[in-house]
Design a protein that fits this description.
Layout lengths: L19 E4 L4 E6 L2 E5 L17 E5 L2 E4 L5 H11 L8 H4 L12 H11 L6 H9 L23 E2 L2 E2 L33
Antiparallel strand pairs: 1-2, 2-5, 3-4, 6-7
């Protein structure tokens, strides 16, 4: 989830002083993602069917924007439910995200939009999400490079800690170059526009 658009700022990927803010309404930590241009899509040109819809690669230019450092947690979403009376989460959420520090699951795109309106933010576009997920790396498939392991992310129900049935707390793995966590694995993420 991101904050309303901001003016452009020129910040290097390795800048330890990258602008961070805390969003008062939900207490989320946010980081400014610098304006820039990137090659959107998958440039690996492999014959995998799962990646064909990520082609052709095309150049996209973006203004700077803020992005939540962590996925929205169960605890943050519970606060939203309490204050708004929005429809409750499905019962199975506690099976996959058992604590308030786990990412919220079981929300529709409409639920995510309602949360954003309540908190005063918006969902990122697909281009913004992909740019932020790359963390400043050029031409790589994953947030930490071209390969992904269970030391880097929770995917396919397994981590280096063994087989799991659900999510892990939002701060579990290493952040990418922009300081964002879990940009690969853990949960699926909603964007404001439809995937194409």
């Amino acid at each position: 989830i991101e904050a309303p658009p901001t003016k452009e700022k020129d910040m290097a990927v390795d800048d330890e002083t990258r602008e961070r803010i805390t969003w008062e309404k939900d207490g989320s930590e946010m980081v400014l993602i610098p304006a820039g241009m990137f090659e959107m899509g998958d440039a690996m040109n492999e014959l995998e069917n799962r990646m064909k819809d990520a082609q052709p690669v095309h150049r996209v230019e973006l203004d700077a924007f803020y992005m939540d450092v962590y996925e929205v947690t169960v605890g943050q979403y519970k606060k939203f439910l309490t204050e708004t009376g929005h429809s409750a989460l499905p019962d199975e959420v506690t099976k996959f995200s058992p604590t308030d520090s786990h990412p919220v699951v079981g929300v529709s795109w409409y639920d995510a939009e309602a949360y954003c309106r309540w908190v005063g933010k918006r969902l990122p576009t697909e281009a913004e999400w992909e740019y932020a997920a790359r963390g400043g790396l050029v031409g790589n498939r994953y947030p930490l490079g071209n390969q992904i392991t269970h030391k880097d992310a929770n995917y396919s129900g397994a981590t280096t800690q063994g087989k799991i049935n659900g999510t892990l707390p939002v701060h579990t793995f290493q952040a990418n170059g922009y300081g964002l966590f879990n940009m690969a694995g853990n949960v699926w993420e909603w964007c404001s526009d439809w995937y194409d």
